User: What shape does this take?
Amino acid sequence: MIWFWLTLAVIIMGIASVVDFSTESKSKLLKDRVLIIFAHPDDESMFFGPTLEYLSQHQNVQVHLLCLSNGNADGLGYLRQTELVNAASQYRIPKSNIQILSDKRLSDGMYERWDSIVIAKHIHKYITEKDIKLAITFDKDGISGHPNHKACFYGALNASKMVADMQLFTLKSVGFFQKYLYWLDCCRMVVVQFLSSKQKHITIEAKRQSIQTIRNAMIEGHRSQMVWFRYGWIYLSRYMFLNTLEQVVF
Ligand SMILES: [Zn+2]
Assistant: This one.
């Protein structure tokens, strides 16, 4: 019986490696400067890795990172700031393109409520100073449901409304099955791909080399966060292999 399941797993992985899940054109993300907005050091690799890898492969795109806290919930804020810079180097993002906020109103924590107006002011300052017209952040469900992640969406939405021609994309949150059983979910995605050729989202699938880069960014970059269960995320979670982005209309 074990051979049946192993064979099935290999077949699914084979299908997933050759099927292009791209839907709407990814190229619309390729602006001169693109900002990724997230809540904590390690969010960029745990959730946005395929997008970062895709953007970083285009030399005419400058990728910027705005991290709204230093992730100090466990008193490791100073270390985690350094880890973010190290992880970003895996995606060839220079330190000069990274800003990590240290605003007491945006403290890391499950019970911390972040004011979207405060966040919007920080984001607006960054995008106007750097002349950025496209940003990507969490959607309103924040992938893991973390309130700091959800707050990123509302802050980015408010900031984007203040800037002419600004485009905002969000990373789609999915349910448990899709989140943790990526390889099995590939079967469903292949079927959906056949049934519906016109979907209004962008799918970015990381290729083998990119997946390794994302894993390295987590394992080598964010060492303080590499407790045992993180390996489950790295090897099973959809977000290490694939990002689905949706444009926000406002
Ligand atoms: Zn986070």
Q: What stands out?
A: The two ends are 52 Å apart (CA to CA).
